[in-house]
Write a structure and sequence with these properties.
InterPro entries: Alkaline_phosphatase_core_sf, Phosphodiest/P_Trfase
Protein name: Alkaline phosphatase family protein
Shape: globular
Organism: Nesterenkonia alkaliphila
Pfam family, one: Phosphodiest
Helix content: 25-40%
Structural class: alpha/beta
CATH architecture of the largest domain: 3-Layer(aba) Sandwich
CATH topology of the largest domain: Alkaline Phosphatase, subunit A
GO molecular function, one term: hydrolase activity
Length: 401
């Protein structure tokens, strides 16, 4: 195994997978554990800012003064790990199910699906012949929260209401509120909460309310322009302003009944165009490779029958050993990168994994098409910049020590 591997994500403690289940426990719902020490509330809102990593926020606090005020206060800020790979499908499934990647199985952007004998996309290109409920059969936290007595709302883009990823990772129960703009999503969340708690109508203990609110503008800008771009900073400013107005509105109406949390699914790093490497014409590297998958910063190699994974890993290590951790699947599983791995998930992981730590991306354009080479901001690997995400409490309420 390569030396000096990074530590595995902290799946047992400060990890993204515990956010929704801790929120449910903080609402007083039975069957959940408040692993993250969230403040007790009868209304909890979880904002998922796609692509807003801990290092990304730390580098741009001047453009996010409201978020930065919580980030700088030890009682209202935590740093969490997301899983491996640090990519949206994987992280949303961990958030939604409360499980590590090796159990929920959405363990990359592109994955080999043994029932179909081909590589399939887990984000926007989900194939019609792969049933999300079979591919990811575990119940979600939102489903369990509804069963435990909470009223639940998911607030996201309208087109995500019935997407395959939504059905696999969140299987949202309760209400779905679709809105195209960031401002409209925050407004919809506030209006839904207020409709459940009209003024002057409270009799007896209130029904617990849980809201999941998804924001993807930052991630989109990062991919297209980079995390150091004016466009990315502009979207961060928009999020900051909307979150501040939302927190103020909820706090003024509900006081300490409400807790508003903001976290993210991964961070992002910029990769210059000359460092986006296409291996499509590298017959020496692709010999013995039946297919590729994963992400540009955590590529999976699926070996042909009879190809020794260790030999294949050594060949790629000779090429990328100074820029990436190159492991066999068995080595990565033993290192705990994916948490416990269920048998039906094991074959979805590549026989060899190339987890980049240098500022490069590795592409197989012959399979994916050239449009991916246009992306500036990338993520997927297990570096701190990609795997560490903030968790902020935006009403000023303290996490438990």
């Amino acid at each position: 195994m390569p030396a000096e591997l990074p530590a595995a994500p902290d799946y047992q403690n400060r990890h993204l997978r515990h956010v929704l289940s801790s929120a449910a426990a903080a609402l007083g719902l039975s069957g959940f554990e408040n692993r993250l020490g969230l403040p007790q509330a009868s209304i909890t809102v979880v904002i998922l800012a796609d692509g807003l990593g801990e290092e990304n926020l730390a580098s741009h606090t001047g453009h996010a003064r409201f978020l930065a005020s919580a980030w700088r206060t030890s009682s209202t800020a935590r740093v969490l790990d997301c899983g491996a790979p640090a990519t949206t499908a994987c992280s949303l499934a961990s958030l939604g199910t409360g499980l590590p990647p090796g159990e929920h199985g959405l363990i990359g952007y592109d994955l080999y699906a043994p029932p179909l004998n081909r590589v399939v996309n887990q984000l926007g290109g989900w194939p019609d012949d792969l049933d999300p409920a079979v591919w990811q059969p575990h119940p979600t936290v939102l489903q369990q929260a509804v069963a435990a007595g909470a009223q639940v709302a998911t607030v996201s883009r309208t087109e995500f209401r019935s997407s395959a990823l939504t059905r696999a990772a969140l299987q949202h129960s309760g209400d779905f509120l679709g809105a195209g703009t960031l401002e409209a999503r925050f407004a919809a969340a506030a209006e839904w909460i207020e409709a459940q708690r009209p003024r002057g109508s409270r009799q007896g203990p209130p029904v617990p309310l849980m809201v999941y609110l998804y924001v993807d503008e930052i991630d989109d800008a990062g991919h297209e322009f980079g995390v150091d771009s004016a466009q990315w900073r502009g979207h961060l400013e928009d999020l900051d302003a909307a979150a501040a107005r939302f927190a103020r509105r909820c706090s003024e109406r509900f006081g300490e009944q409400v807790s508003i949390l903001l976290t993210a699914d991964h961070g992002m790093v910029d990769v210059a165009e000359p460092d986006r490497i296409d291996i499509s014409d590298r017959a020496d590297l692709l010999a013995g490779v039946a297919d590729t998958g994963g992400d540009p910063r955590m590529m999976y190699l699926y070996a042909e029958p009879g190809q020794d994974a260790a030999e294949l890993a050594q060949r790629w290590r000779s090429e990328f050993g100074d820029s990436a951790w190159v492991l066999t699947r068995a080595e990565a599983v033993e290192a705990g990168w994916f948490g416990p791995v269920q048998q039906q998930v094991l074959q979805r992981i590549g026989d060899v994994i190339i987890a980049v730590h240098a500022p490069i991306g590795i592409y197989h354009i012959a399979r994916t098409g050239r449009h991916f080479l246009k992306m500036v901001g990338l993520h997927g690997s297990i570096t701190e910049a990609e795997r560490q995400v903030p968790m902020l409490e935006l009403t000023g309420r303290a996490f438990a020590p």
